[in-house]
Amino acid sequence: PYKPKRRTRATIARERGLEPLAEQMLSQDMNRGNLEEIAAQFLNDEVPTSEAALAGARDIIAETVMEDATVRSSIRDRTRREATLVVTLTDKAKDERGVYEAYYDYREQLKNIPPHRLLALNRGERDGVLKVKLDSPDDDFITRIQKYAIKNPKSIFTEQLRAAIADGYKRLLAPSIETELRGEVTDHSDSHAIDTFGANLRQLLLQPPVRGKSVLGIDPGFRTGCKVAVVDATGKFLGGTTIYPHPPQKRWDEAKATLLKLIEQGADIMAIGNGTASRETEALAAEVIGQAQIDPARDLAYIMVNEAGASVYSASELARQEFPDLDVSMRGAVSIARRLQDPLAELVKIDPKSIGVGLYQHDVDQKRLAETLDAVVESAVNHVGVDVNTASASLLSYVAGISRRVANAIVKYREEHGPFKQRQALLKVKGLGEKTYQQAIGFLKIPDSQTTLDNTFIHPESYPVVERLFAYLDMQGDEKELPGQIELLRQKANLGQLAAKLAVGEPTLVDILDSLAKPGRDPRDELPPPLLRQDVLSMGDLKAGMILNGTVRNVVDFGAFVDIGVKQDGLVHISQLADRYIKSPFEVVSVGDVVKVKVISIDAARGRIGLSMKEVN
Fold this sequence. Notes:
The protein is of the alpha/beta class. The protein has helices spanning 9-15, 19-27, 35-40, 50-66, 69-82, 115-126, 138-149, 158-205, 252-264, 278-291, 310-314, 317-322, 328-341, 343-347, 366-384, 393-396, 404-417, 434-440, 463-473, 482-492, 495-502, 506-517, and strands at 84-89, 105-109, 130-135, 215-219, 226-231, 237-243, 269-273, 301-305, 386-387, 444-445, 547-556, 559-563, 570-573, 594-603, 608-612. A hairpin with a 4-residue loop joins strand 14 (594-603) and strand 15. The longest helix is centred in the N-terminal third of the chain and has 48 residues, at 158-205.
């Protein structure tokens, strides 16, 4: 049951009876004497010579000194502060695309290396392209350990001790500390990458919905064509088709005619997935908008939608249940359209790891990543709240306290008995007991309930407090009157005194007033709407100094990638994000933000666009 301790050179030396010799040498209490004669006392069949005895004793000393807690702690701390990460090329043939070219001959202090670079180096090492080593001031460290361990420099064992310590440092301590510190910085980088992914995912989930619009979703492609799906303002699938505007078919005019017809039938916005052939499809959309014969008041537009994970969803069991008669790629087009209408409701159907707004997300601890991302999704869903009469089981399952089984039971009950009329009715759902109800109900809303409070974040256990508040205000909870009354109350009343009068804590009263001021509030509606476009730019249209609007697609340690409507997202380097010093891009931008940027550099050959957010307002 117990793992045997690894046999080291010191273990073997102890088995050969050399520990007393090592202890005598470490005691350093002999200033005179003959080393050979002292060592000769320990000869046996396995230790034939005095030199063999001394070598074995040195092995024991090396291990003993290197396991000393003070030595390890001191060298670990100094290595952490002083070591340099040295990177060299091992096999260029394994790096066909030159991904790691910047690191073929690279050095950086361990304490300064940013998480994204460390994860890149780790990946390069794993791919067999790079070799990464720690370079420390070894001679200095050896001298320090010798000073610490050698108490009597006049001892006849001093040179033996020096040799043992030098060997122990190089053979035992340095490799061990290197492994430990590489693990430590990788662990820190993992945590940072996971936090970055979580922050980006939260912003993506909380992007404002586009309500009341019929959307034409396009999943672009070349050879297999572009799948087109139309959904009505509630997300219901109305119909779909496939167009072939791009090579090899090049049926551009036919594709345009098909889209024009669908738009004339009522589609308001074209949502284009941002994958393969997306920019070519964007040019088609811009041309269609220019030629559409529709009422100008309809304000036809297109938008690029992050399609990451759409293919994962479209091949899932959930998508098969939702659209049993649609082929996989058409389901993807429906998902793209719905992502624009309500990003949160659509994205919860996909494993968060597939949404792809992370930094080296495939290189980090997958269990920790999954736990963090699930918590982010749950937090976002509970932040927005859920309409219990329209939410899918996927969305309901992220509400605090509700399991996948209970979520399915809520949907089944709704299908069999019709929409819930009030929150209390949820207690009739099989498997949803009092405990689950108490935990979840504050996040479950019923917009059409006869009770206004059922469409707020106010928990039913606080309803009596609201009734006392209404009595105090001498009102009946008329929804039209509420916001004005609450605003007046905030201006005039002492909230501390009012809370005491209503027998409730002041923080709870503040939350109640917030909810009553905006019944049915969706916090996402307070964010700027997504950036809709009507024309398209090419790389050749860009000029240094141009000011453009764009959408932040990804945020990483070194800056933010912004979609400005050309084929390639531009990079706003961290140094160009603000007029002041910032430690992290997250201080300034989030995924989904609409930002104003200035073009500062264009490298058409490499497809790179440099942008700045400095001095653009």
